[in-house]
TrEMBL record, chains A, B:
It is an enzyme of class 4 (lyase). Its main location: other. This is 2-oxo-4-hydroxy-4-carboxy-5-ureidoimidazoline decarboxylase. Keywords: Decarboxylase, Lyase, Peroxisome, Purine metabolism.
Length: 176, 176
């Protein structure tokens, strides 16, 4: 799908296709629709990023709270999250790894009041475990910013998945 | 439900109960969760209002775009919207009224790029028709602000419906 095709969409079609590039926050895409037509994928990405940056700190935490815990059962996840967690190998952890991840995620959420967010597609079970152990000890403001950086990475990959699916095909072939 | 009961909720319970007080914008409730415990219903309402006011103009338009057109079939509406449209008598319009409302709503959306939003519970078919005919000719910035005022009225009534259901019971008995 090229940018001309995106600009030819109705609002309803746009929201249907792009509504979840920031997990469960269709309002962000509903907002940037105010500035269409878009100049390209980089323009869409920049507008999403600027919108997120314009939010008060509570709004950034709100975005993080719209994300699932990493080790939730697939049934409660969006399709996007399932694919991403699969790509990181999170669906084939053994029960010991899963228990450890669950405990760390719970400690993280308990400490900060929002879930641990990481771009699963850019990570493996090992690197996610390492990041969790490190990040769980940081300060709230630091983690709010770090979480939002990860939200933007996830968003960028989801946008590319929609707009340049062939370039991303390789990450899709990861086996269950 | 009193404010102590609200403050005793987990985040998941809070979102389940209050997530739709601003139509399809759970992120707003996810955001104000950063400031819990709440001092009372007025505190929750003020925090939602402040959060909305803090958004860039595109964000306010995004909120309006998360609202349904007034005359959509019930199947595509949230439960809250169905109840509200029923209270305003919108479900028992004759086909002439419905066609006129549809046309005006389409003209409004075409002109402003967001749907006509009005607090249905505070209106009747007649007053909604009057408001539509008036508001469809205004300026976009004016309608953005007016729409957001209506969003806040809807939110206020939804909050009271949850927190003081007995005081609101009378609006619930409207027949189909």
């Amino acid at each position: 799908m090229d940018i001309n095709a995106v600009n030819a969409l109705t609002y309803e079609e746009f929201l249907e296709i792009f509504g979840n590039v920031v997990e469960k926050c269709p309002i962000i895409l509903a907002a940037i629709w105010s500035n269409h037509p878009f100049r390209g994928i980089a323009d869409i990405e920049a507008q999403i990023s600027d919108f997120i940056d314009s939010l008060p700190e509570s709004g950034k935490e709100g975005i993080l709270r719209c994300h699932p815990d990493l080790s939730l059962p697939a049934v409660s996840l969006t399709r996007d999250s399932v694919d991403e967690q699969r790509a990181a190998g999170l669906v084939c952890m053994d029960s010991g790894e899963r228990t450890l991840l669950l405990e760390l995620c719970a400690r993280y959420r308990q400490r900060f009041g929002f879930p641990f967010v990481i771009c699963a597609r850019a990570n493996s079970v090992e690197s996610i475990g390492r990041a969790l152990r490190e990040r769980v000890n940081r300060e709230r403001a630091q983690e709010r910013e770090r979480g939002i950086e990860e939200v933007k990475k996830i968003c960028s990959l989801r946008l590319r998945q929609i707009l340049q699916p062939h370039a991303e095909r390789s990450t899709n072939t990861t086996k269950l």
